[in-house]
UniProtKB/TrEMBL annotation:
<keyword id="KW-0482">Metalloprotease</keyword>
<feature type="domain" description="Peptidase M48">
    <location>
        <begin position="233"/>
        <end position="454"/>
    </location>
</feature>
<feature type="transmembrane region" description="Helical">
    <location>
        <begin position="317"/>
        <end position="337"/>
    </location>
</feature>
<feature type="transmembrane region" description="Helical">
    <location>
        <begin position="201"/>
        <end position="223"/>
    </location>
</feature>
<feature type="active site">
    <location>
        <position position="304"/>
    </location>
</feature>
<dbReference type="GO" id="GO:0005789">
    <property type="term" value="C:endoplasmic reticulum membrane"/>
</dbReference>
<dbReference type="Pfam" id="PF01435">
    <property type="entry name" value="Peptidase_M48"/>
</dbReference>
<keyword id="KW-0472">Membrane</keyword>
<keyword id="KW-0812">Transmembrane</keyword>
<dbReference type="GO" id="GO:0071586">
    <property type="term" value="P:CAAX-box protein processing"/>
</dbReference>
<comment type="similarity">
    <text>Belongs to the peptidase M48A family.</text>
</comment>
<dbReference type="InterPro" id="IPR001915">
    <property type="entry name" value="Peptidase_M48"/>
</dbReference>
<dbReference type="GO" id="GO:0004222">
    <property type="term" value="F:metalloendopeptidase activity"/>
</dbReference>
<feature type="transmembrane region" description="Helical">
    <location>
        <begin position="131"/>
        <end position="154"/>
    </location>
</feature>
<keyword id="KW-0645">Protease</keyword>
<feature type="active site" description="Proton donor">
    <location>
        <position position="390"/>
    </location>
</feature>
<keyword id="KW-0862">Zinc</keyword>
Length: 467
């Protein structure tokens, strides 16, 4: 641990020199965030012409009707136009907020609000919580029209929207209340730990964040999710017994098996699992059960169990901890850099002893370009995990002797389920490689079908050689 600290101190020392230079941070943040937005727009423009293709890829031709293909192309086109507009709109908004000194203003307003109740600036943590809420609330208001358009115009046009205006409003209000109830104590504890630990905050805050994530894993399904959706035990029948038997054969610690009323808001479909290592919950969307046969849904679950078998969620958690660690490790250099705050219009008195939360927020903005690369790497890892989980489903028959006959066609079933999922969700079929590398957490349907075929023929070739 001491070695770690001395290394960190060295890096921070070097960076402190960099940060003391009077860099115009505001100009830098404006420039770099526009660069990222323009790059994202460029990717959309690369992808856009593919929505005008009149034929699906050869591998999909047999599985998708001309009408379905045409509809998915139109849906893709509309979504791309919307993404282009909303990306530029949000960037313009951020840019204006930075330009007019919104962050300094919000800090001041939070301070004035506290002063009314007789709390001075010595209550920095309270002011920080007020500041974050003000920022969050005010900056989310201008994006409401975007969600309204996306839900009631775009999704509606293609028959996906099931949300009523009343549900939309209650969802938003609930979201704000829950955000407040969860975020305020989190922020408060985060800043308390930071103040208490001083320069040695990295391991303490990392432990705190890990603990918070674990608590959320427990609280989310028990308290938060039921506020939005109804989870009911999956009814008895073919599907339930298939999944229960699969889980028990793989020694998957299945605690609850739920069906969720996803159809309340949208016709898009899905399935997932979550929980602690010794107690897992599987959730299947009612839309998926409706759209696919029991044996196809079983294959989707076989894929999900592949994620569990290969510890994908744990590995992702480890990667995200590493990410948090690197952000924390770089942070102190910026914390002690007064030019950072003054260039964002904060008064000299505040900048001289920067409030942690403000410095952290500005620091995040400076990291924007780096975060774009992090997300490319995370997506690449996630696509590899998807590939691995698909292979798991195909090879399940070799892991469960005695089940060979029943599981022999798992790959085909998964392929059929994926096709149904894609077709019903009108997912994009033609994909630009650069757009996909940047945005996609899953391989494309064509890639997955090809891989499924390759897994199966590799299995058969192995069997023929007597392996
Ligand atoms: Zn998956």
């Amino acid at each position: 641990m001491d070695f770690l600290h001395s290394q960190l101190a060295r890096i921070q020392h070097h960076l402190a020199f960099v940060a003391v230079d009077p860099i115009d941070w505001k100009f830098y943040v404006q420039g770099i965030s526009w660069a990222v937005t323009l790059f994202e727009s460029y990717l959309l423009l690369r992808q856009y012409p593919l929505y005008s293709k009149t034929e699906p890829p050869a591998a999909l031709k047999a599985h998708i009707s001309a009408a379905e293909f045409e509809k998915s192309q139109k849906y893709g086109k509309d979504k791309a136009k919307f993404a282009l507009f909303s990306g530029l709109y949000k960037q313009l908004l951020d840019s204006v907020l930075i330009y007019v000194g919104f962050y300094a203003w919000a800090w001041e307003v939070a301070g004035l609000g506290m002063a009314r109740f007789g709390y001075g600036p010595e209550y920095q943590i309270t002011q920080s919580v007020g500041f974050v809420f003000l920022l969050f609330f005010l900056s989310s208001l201008p994006t409401i029209p975007l969600s309204v358009y996306s839900t009631f115009v775009l999704e509606e046009k293609y028959g996906f929207n099931k949300t009523t205006p009343a549900l939309f409003v209650t969802d938003m209000l609930k979201g704000w209340v829950i955000g407040g109830v969860v975020l305020a104590p989190f922020l408060w504890a985060f800043l308390r730990i930071f103040n208490w630990a001083g320069d040695r905050f990295v391991p303490w805050l990392m432990m705190f964040i890990l603990a918070f994530q674990l608590v959320m894993v427990i609280i989310y399904p028990m308290i938060i999710q039921p506020l939005f959706n109804k989870l009911s035990p999956l009814r008895q029948g073919d599907l339930r017994s298939r999944i229960e038997s699969l889980a028990s054969k793989l020694k998957f610690p299945l605690k609850h098996l739920y069906e969720i009323d996803g159809s309340k808001r949208s016709a898009h479909s899905n399935a997932y699992f979550f929980g602690l290592p010794w107690s897992k919950h599987i959730v299947i969307f009612d839309t998926l059960i409706e759209q696919s046969s029991a044996e196809e849904v079983e294959a989707v679950l076989a894929h999900e169990l592949g994620h569990w078998y290969y510890l994908h969620p744990t590995k992702m958690l480890a990667v995200s901890q590493l990410h948090v660690f690197s952000i924390f490790a770089l942070f102190p250099a910026f914390l002690h850099a007064p030019p950072l705050l003054t260039s964002f219009d904060f008064p000299k008195a505040v900048a001289a002893k920067p409030p942690t939360i403000v410095a952290f927020l500005l620091f995040q903005m400076i990291l924007t370009p780096l975060e774009a690369f992090v997300s490319i790497a995370m997506h690449a890892i996630s696509r590899h995990f998807e590939w691995e989980a698909d292979r798991f489903a195909c090879e399940l028959q070799d892991m469960l002797p005695g089940e060979q006959e029943k599981m022999a066609d798992m790959g085909d079933r998964l392929g059929r389920a994926l096709i149904t999922l894609h077709v019903k969700n009108l997912s994009t079929v033609w994909v630009d490689w650069m757009y996909s590398a940047y945005h996609h957490s899953h391989p494309t349907l064509t890639e997955r079908l090809k891989a499924l075929e390759a897994f199966q023929s590799a299995r058969k070739a192995g069997a023929k050689r007597g392996l």
